[in-house]
Amino acid sequence: MDVSILAAEIAAFLAPYLPDLAKLGGKAAEEASKKLGSDAFESAKGLWGRLRPKVEAKPAAQEAVMDVAASPEDKDAQAALRLQLKKILAEDETLVQEILGLWQEAKARNAGAVAKGERSVAVSGNVSKSVIVTGDGNQVG
């Protein structure tokens, strides 16, 4: 798998979990697991556990993580994280293989979609010809 694609997928997956993963410890991990769904959180924790030492070794990567942790939905912050993960992965083929294995496990474990946050929409499977309506009182005719 191309490291650019892997970095993009990992950054997008980790973004909603980084506020909790960045301050992970005892009670915070327990609360995050309840709030975010234990399977998905465990997958995120496994990926983060493997990436964290490499991220901590690079100040720019640390800053990108903290920016995403502060604003998980900020597309610019996610782009910076994606770039930093791409650089980290490009330097270490063994790490790429480990992360790829963890990512494949995570996707298999979390095959069902999870929506996080008010008015979120989660999709699992192909919805290319489906209608998704959000908002209060909307109807599809």
Summed up:
This protein is 65% helix and 0% strand.
Structural topology:
Layout: H1 3-14, H2 18-21, H3 26-36, H4 38-56, H5 59-70, H6 75-90, H7 93-109
Helix pairs in contact: 1-6, 3-4, 4-7, 5-6
Key phrases:
141 residues; mainly alpha
Describe the structure.
With 141 residues, this protein is an all-alpha fold. It has one domain (3-109). Helix content is 65%, strand content 0%. The protein is built from 7 helices and no strands.
Largest sheet: none
Quaternary: single chain
Helix fraction by DSSP (H/I, runs of at least 4): 55-70%
| Contiguous uncertain segments of 5+ residues | none
| Mean pLDDT value | 81
